Amino acid sequence: MTKLRFHIRFPEEKIPEPVIYQIGHEYQVVTSIRRADVRETTGWMDVEFSGETEEIERAIAGMRNKGVLVDPIELNVVE
Amino acid sequence: MAKMKALICRECGKEYPTEALHVCELCFGPLEVKYNYEEIKEAMSRASVEAGPKSLWRYKELLPIEGGPTIGLHAGMTPLVHAKNLGSFLGLDELYIKNDCVNQPTLSFKDRVVAVALTRARELGYETAACASTGNLANSVAAHAAQAGMQCYVFIPGDLEAAKVLGNLIYRPKVVEIEGNYDDVNRLCSEIAGERRWAFVNVNIRPYYAEGSKTLAFEVVEQLGWRAPDQVVVPMASGSLLTKIWKGLNEFKKIGFLKDVSTKVNGAQAEGCSPIATAFKDGRDFFKPVKPSTIAKSLAIGNPADGYYALKTVAESGGAMEAVTDDEIIEGIKLLAQTEGIFAETAGGVTIGTLLKLVKQGVIKKHDVTVAYITGNGLKTQEAVVDSVGRPYRIPPSLVKFEQMFGQQGAA
Question: Which region holds residue B277: left if phi is over 0, alpha if psi is between -120 and 50, else beta?
Fold first, then answer.
């Protein structure tokens, strides 16, 4: 079991979509939301994904395909 | 009692021991160092600072180490230049350049943060230093690790320019090129940092690393004769530097070195990567990540970790933000070189370009004591100006030809 932490950002057109719900259904990944700020035009969440590493990787790829931005919890670590 | 009290979450306030932690386990907010200022106030005076080493370690009581400094002993105490020529050009009476072009050993302000990070890392028992970087940070970590006899891993994107790769290889770290786009590189580095017991300076050591930037505030106050400037102009990449300069100024107030702090903190970005400045100008308290496209590569962080806190800091201090084009960056580099003899890297061009704009807008005024932070050396980014500085005069080895070109008095 792996636990990885991410900062997820939703573009405006994705705000109405139940992205986190969909991820839980489409992949064997448990999501724990720790902080979030979702507004009419933008939104972000700090989340932890638990599951097998490969399944988390698939979930991240799935979110990116939906147009959701997924970054490490540290945001940019390449300076 | 220890001068470091704890690590504290900047969001929820939960406290942690002063170990290699950087994210709050509860809310995932970033951690920073909390100090015992009463203790520090007792241990530190202006006289004790003035009698200290000619380096950033003269402020060691306000830095996050438990013992004495062991790595990066020569970083800091760079010149604060009274820029009379540039000031005259801009109509400013008291303009100063904080010149970290000559910081030691790798000629950028990163030597400050890395000196602090690796001294702390060694206290915590780490034998390997690491970072993910495209430039100045990698140079500094590799150089300090070499001097300290630490193992070193430097992670870089696979498409980095040859000169920048060489600048790391010379110190003989293990340089790992990662294939894939920037986001892939970024995420892998974060995961490696989580897996290995390494001092990843800007990830698990970040709360300590970032504190090194405060010394840019401490030194300026001391070099100005123990007074805070009215205005500072600070380049922004992650935004951390700007927030720590503000923290440093306010710490000097807390320990009684300054009566008051009314400094306006102004942020500078390149238009090709200006998520923080754009948010400020739009009046937003959040930024939107961008894909960087600018010659100011040392500031090209599209999703800045401290962007939110930089916005808060500038608002709190009553400062402003501006962004400049690549052409304005080049003009800024040339202007600084041709008025003050200081050759800055592209980030310096961003600072000077922004300073120009803020003066034109009336944000910075004639009598304001103003400090512009120049954070890296121009020899590192020569490609940015190579096509805009002209060519040498060329003559045959003949005095006649020389005098034909320059006249008897040597004027062209």
Answer: alpha
**A40 at interface of B, judged by CB pairs closer than 8 A:** no
Mutate to test the interface with A, among B9, B190, B308 (most CBs of A within 10 A): B190
Interface predicted TM-score (ipTM) of this complex, two decimals: 0.94
Percent of chain B with pLDDT over 90: 90
Name the CATH topology of A2-72.
Alpha-Beta Plaits (3.30.70)
Query: Which ranges constitute the DSSP H helices of B96-213?
Result: 110-123, 136-148, 162-169, 182-195, 206-211
Pairing of β B174-178 and β B264-270: unpaired
Question: Do A9 and B187 lie within an 8 Å CB cutoff?
Answer: no
User: CA of B360, closest CA in chain A: separation in Å?
Assistant: 31
Those residues whose C-beta lies under 8 Å from the C-beta of residue A33, and which sit 6 or more positions away, are A20, A45, A46, A47
The answer to whether B33 and B20 are in contact (CB under 8 A) is no
Distance CA B88, CA B408 (A): 31
What domains appear along chain B, each with residue ranges and CATH number? 80-106+213-384 (3.40.50.1100)
| CB neighbour list of residue B266: distance below 8 Å, 6 or more residues apart | B231, B232, B233, B234, B314, B319, B320, B321, B322, B354, B358, B363, B364
Residues of A in contact with B207 (CB under 8 A): none
Domain definitions of chain A by residue range: 2-72
pTM (2 d.p.) = 0.96
Taking only the tens place, the pLDDT of each residue in B36-62 is 999 999 999 999 999 999 999 999 999
